[in-house]
């Protein structure tokens, strides 16, 4: 994927996250619905078809069986193309789980022993859906692991680029979804706890905004590091030990160091300012925030760039010696 297209995708993702936050669409409240999708809808459709007529019932049974054996069909197709591996056995379990889950979705009254409770039915459907998703995601992850292990250097570089894209999408969700949702919730809590004193909340709003920036900044910087890493990968694919590759590695190394320094210093500065203005604030969150995931990502990237630079230097020294 071209960098401009990828950047556009991340911007669109950020806009969607912001929209969901301000529309007050809670991930927690919608999670049961998402986990049950589309199995709940398939079950409801098959149930309606089954109750429509005798022919509809026969057709619903046929469709129920057909959908349930789809993973087996995929397994047979895979067997025609390559040797089956241990992880492929998960497709058999996925097919068996589909038989069970779809049957329960067709007959939702069997889900839990809590009749008449729609909330319990929703949770039961979410649990069944999570079973199918865990099998499917587990199979995909094991296949990806085997591809990583057996892949050539060129394929590994491609896989790394894909994984960097997925990671950066996660960073965007953290910055413009999770952190922004925390900001909105904090503002709402501040307002609810200070009814009648709204005129005194201005500085508190400012510090809540600053706290959001401190929380989101590591994820934004990590996204910038992803783009620098993608440029490095592109240079490596052209010529591994070229001057352009080394320059890209050096830029990535500098950016990693800057990101680490900015992350640490902004956290220190925020805590210092909050201490100085604590008497004027209606809410104080004096905590030591350590963005472990972002910092680990930065450190690993910095380590890899240093290894590349030293490898090039060693190669040049060996060539001069020969």
Written account of the structure:
Helix 4 (54-68) packs antiparallel against helix 6 (90-106). The chain is flat and about 75 Å long. It contains 11 helices and no strands. The model has no long low-confidence stretch (mean pLDDT 81). It has 322 residues and is mainly α. The two termini are 40 Å apart.
Salient structural properties:
322 residues, mainly alpha, 82% helix, flat
Summarize the structure.
The chain has helices at 3-22, 27-36, 39-52, 54-68, 70-81, 90-106, 118-150, 153-193, 202-238, 243-276, 292-321.
- Helix content estimate: over 70%
**Terminal CA distance:** 40 Å
Strand content: under 5%
What is the β-strand count? 0
Based on secondary structure, the structural category is: mainly alpha
> How would you state the average pLDDT, rounded?
81
Backbone shape:
flat
Helix-strand string: HHHHHHHHHHH
The Rg value, from CA coordinates, equals 26 Å
Task: Detail the poorly predicted runs.
Answer: none
Largest sheet: none
Tally of alpha and pi helices? 11
What is the topology?
Blueprint: H1 3-22, H2 27-36, H3 39-52, H4 54-68, H5 70-81, H6 90-106, H7 118-150, H8 153-193, H9 202-238, H10 243-276, H11 292-321
Helix pairs in contact: 1-8, 2-7, 3-4, 3-6, 4-6, 5-6, 6-7, 8-9, 9-10, 9-11, 10-11
